[in-house]
Amino acid sequence: MSDETLASNPDTTNYEYDDKTVHKVFISYVNSYHSKFIAKNLLSYSISFSKGSKYKIYGTFQESQAAQLSDFEFWTSNSESFLNDVSQCDFIILDISQDNLQLLESKAIVNYLENLLENGTELKFKLILISTILTWGKTAQKDEIVTDSSYRKRRPHPCFNDHLLLERKVMNLQKKYKDSVKSMVVCPGIIYGEQQDIFHYIFKQCYFNHPYVDVFMPGVNYLPIIYIHDFVKIVLDLIINFPDVSSNYILAVQPNPLNEFEIATIFAQSISESEVMIRICEKDEILAMGNDKITQRTYNHMMLNLRLESDYLKNFEFTINGQNLKDYAEQIANEFYSSRKLKPIRIVIDGSPHTYQGKLGKKLSQFYCIHPIDHKCFLKYYQCRLALKVHYIEQYLSYMERMSLRCSQEALETIKYNELISSNENLLENWKQEKQKVDEILLSKNYTFDDISDFLVEKLSCHGCTMHQGYVLSNFQLDSTMASRIFLNNDHFNEKTKPDYVIIINRSAQINENCQDEDTRQEKDQIQQDLTDYYDKHDEEVSILNFFLDRGIVPLEITINHDLNDREIQEIFEKLKLKIGHPHSYELSKEEQDEINEIKSLIADKEAAERKEMERKRAQKEFEENQIKLEEWNKQVMEQKEKEFHKLEQQSLPVRQYLMKYVLPKVTDAFVQVTKLRPEDPVQFIGNYLFQGSFDVNCDSKIDQQIVDEFKSLSKCDPEIKGTGHE
Cα–Cα distance between 40 and 57 in angstroms, integer? Predict the structure, then answer.
């Protein structure tokens, strides 16, 4: 039941009021666990009865949640006019059951009101103090049930003496100023229901499928409890019909008290998907687990051992008591899901092979915190889950055996120890047999859908997939027959396993890429064959698309025609996020959010450091490459400068010196050869000789080199030229 539902449907059967006065009501910490329900019910009552009294609600609030309660006017306790504003209210409701800040604020208000009354200020108000059951924390109790008439004999928990003193001061205000003040102290038991408070850790452990639910030694201690909407009705009745009784103390607890083990079992079974394993732990064991959600406040309440009932409320019609709590367990679980906005997200991704269903399914499961069920790894995952279950229950049986040695026989009888051990041993045997079946299927390797369909249906039907987180089913390449076995019950959808979103991803049967690489070509051929086989088997009659369309679910269709890179897969994932919406997973606590933010900050710092290092390495590599290029360029420049210098040197020599250095040695040598050989045509011989001797000379121009090359080729084929030279 959500806040809105409750506010619009208050239980006002017995409430009657004739005057039309607008009453100002102050509620401290109006957005706290139970105060917000008191405020909303009171406001709803005021709106529903136009002839009755009107209530204008004011209050202080915790942290920054005021925006969620826009129907109320909020005051800050540190403003100068705060205490004076409170004193002008007709009803003042102070809550000291949550934390010490509430106690400090309430003490300041009560002291201020008392000072005003002592100074003769005319005031008229009704004061209700919501106290804590820990003011009874150390009360000695025999076998009989204690009632609220014995409140003077109670002994508080050592940390709650100030709460007891404030209770007495509130009750004394009525005795001292009975014409101006009517006061009442309401002491509720441990309040449960809606988003939960003290028992929240039990619900959260079961929501996340923890193997055990932890309770505290001795485990058979009696806990005074009350359903939140019963408590709200009690407070609302006090406001509308304030009683004129001599005793101004009410113990708000439901009749027929239960022990801690019984309460934990009932709550856990309403959330858990299988037999609940309740562990009775000592405080040191709880602390050793590192479970920071079990706070000192939770521990103090869970260690109470009080069998309490209320004389004042003996005629009150409780919605839930100790005898029918189990009957209302499912309703309490639904309230828990609704008030914390916990809604499973069930997704099916199907279609042709090679369409990246596994990658998309993994991304979706991580983003939405839901169970991944992928065909390629489902059976191995299921095998591991069974192995863990077997391991956990073996540990549990061993733990319970050790626990039996330190518990009294009476305590063991109370928790029905022998029946508990017997039922868990039977459960262990069933899980072992189921695990053996899975092991045999995995050993065969060539298992079919028929082999795993029963396990798949069991997984989809578990609380984790149907009521808690949800699932994403991918890569099964379903046809209508297979889908019917999974999702239908008597030709109708099983509402618990029915998918909320269906995504069909198909790929063209033709692979158009031209692959030169042999391995790549073989891979493309295999993809082509797989797609052809898929479309041959999945015609229009058995297609998964028509299966869902025929039953009123319109799938989101995606078509791809080529291999996708990481960026393209991410783009498809972003589109799916827009289609599905925000996660409906468990709302993180402030500590969990701070831890996640810290991890994100560390990851961001690490990524920034990695990027900085990569940038440094890139810059270093670029610098080294530039240095090598610079050295090569300098070398080329130096060579070019040397050539230019050599050429300029040649051009700058005087004619006589130039001829003496470069021409005369060759010509002289030619003349020497002429005088030795005395050829018939000495001039042609000298010319041929000079050309023949210049073959080894480095030519500065391409034209000179071309002339030399042509002469070389002529010398090979012309006998006259070939016959000349150095012989």
Answer: 9
Q: Find out whether 231 and 34 touch, Cβ atoms under 8 Å.
A: yes
Any idea which residue has 């050599």 for tokens?
646
Please give the structure tokens belonging to residue 711.
């002469």
Q: Residue 63: what pLDDT?
A: 61
- d(CA 105, CA 585) in angstroms, rounded, equals 35
CATH topology of domain 3-338: Rossmann fold (3.40.50)
Q: Is the CA virtual torsion 141, 144, 148, 150 positive or negative? A: negative
**Residue indicated by tokens 């009989």:** 144
For residues 154 and 373, give the distance between their C-alpha atoms in angstroms, rounded to a whole number.
56
Tokens of 359: 């990658």
Sorted by where each begins, the domain ranges of the chain are: 3-338, 339-580, 588-652, 655-723
- Residues in CB range of 115: below 8 A, 6 or more apart: none
What is the Cα–Cα distance from 303 to 282, expressed in whole angstroms? 11
What's the token pair of residue 214? Answer: 């932890």
Nearest to 563 by CA among 533, 598, 592, 523: 523
- pLDDT of res. 717: 52
Rounded to whole angstroms, how far apart are CA atoms 369 and 470?
A: 8
pTM, full prediction? 0.71
Q: Enumerate the β-bridge partners of residue 429.
A: none
User: What is the C-alpha to C-alpha distance for residues 154 and 157, in angstroms, rounded to an integer?
Assistant: 10
Task: Please choose, from the candidates 110, 31, 108, 36, the residue with its C-alpha nearest in 3D space to the C-alpha of residue 77.
Answer: 108
Whether residue 67 is predicted with pLDDT greater than 60 in this model: the reply is: no
Q: What is the DSSP letter of 542?
A: T
- Residue 595: C-alpha distances to residues 206, 588, 609 (Å): 22, 10, 21
- Could you check whether 3-338 and 339-580 share the same CATH topology? yes
Identify the residue whose tokens are 């540990």: 395
Q: What tokens does 137 get? A: 């924390």
In CATH, the number for domain 339-580 is 3.40.50
Q: Are 561 and 353 in contact (CB under 8 A)?
A: no
pLDDT in tens, 410-457: 677 776 777 778 877 888 888 888 888 888 887 777 778 888 888 888
Average pLDDT of the chain to the nearest whole number:
80
How far CA 133 is from CA of 43, 65, 569, 592, in Å, comes to: 27, 26, 56, 29
